[in-house]
Amino acid sequence: MKFGGHFLNKKQDQEYYIEKLEKENLELKERIRYYESKFHKRSDCMKPNLIETGKRIKSIRSNLGMTMEQFAILTDSSNTSAVNNWERGYNLPNKTKLKKIAILGNTTTDWIKWGTLEEYITSYLIGIGYELYIKDFPEIPHKVFKDIQEKYSDTFSLDKDYELLDSIIKNIFTKYYSKDFEDYRDIEVKPDLGLTDDNKNIKMIGQRIRKIRKKENITLEEFGKLFSPTADKAVISNWENGKNLPNSERIKKIAEIGGVSELYLMTGVDSSVAESMYFLSEVALDALERLSIEEVNRIIESFAGYLNVISKIDDPDKREISLNAICQLSLLDKMG
């Protein structure tokens, strides 16, 4: 193929078109981002909480001292049932009626839909996937709000047009608080992370502590209050993220809360498995003496392999594999 006075071989030809396609793809993404920001199309499709919206509409009507019938007339609604449906959170008024309600309440349509800007920030962060994080750290939306108030109050009217602030909310959260969120998220410890065995074990203990807390469906703060003396949520977060370990008394308490053994909490191996290992060593000792060294080694290797797999199953109920089954698997390996 002749191009620009040069002959390109097949590889160069492919690289040229790949580069061209990548460039076009990048330009297309940039155009999509531009139109999304221009027309405020929101990928998260966040919707107002209708129950809370209804409460705000009811508060406007109550503050005006109006009956539902009077309110319906002023908002051009067909009857009182429409007002009743709004206030009970069954549906949202259309844009025109929403504007009329805002005028009557001397407020904005954004406040009716979302509440204060701080409440909107909370809804937005929950809407883009940070619900559990916000539940454990409810002060974060307030911090984001204060940052916006300090930096953008001269640029934006902070009592309306909340959706114009979406990208700013996300940027502030990402810049200042995403690192904390990364620490908070579940950690998957993989063998190739280059961690020492001690570090791996501490992180796995943290995962088991977090699993117990989540199974109880309680926040870091609520979990901390189960201890005496109580533990701050930052302390609990450090345990769960493998930054440090609880003391022996607290390990005992966590095991009690989770209905597991302390051995399981610290090692991931349930006591029934440990007892089975001891039982096997006692019962099988005579039988093992009658086997060749090669056969014994093969059984030990396969048995250890099965126990290793079982020990990595977090759910104790799913690790209740009988000793007899393990022995049968090991014997099959021996015969193979």
Automatic annotation (TrEMBL):
Keywords: Coiled coil, DNA-binding, Plasmid. Residues 11-38 form a coiled coil. InterPro entries: Cro/C1-type_HTH, Lambda_DNA-bd_dom_sf. GO terms for molecular function: DNA binding. The keyword Cytoplasm does not apply. Residues 57-112, 209-265 form the HTH cro/C1-type domain. This is HTH cro/C1-type domain-containing protein. It comes from Enterococcus faecium (Streptococcus faecium).
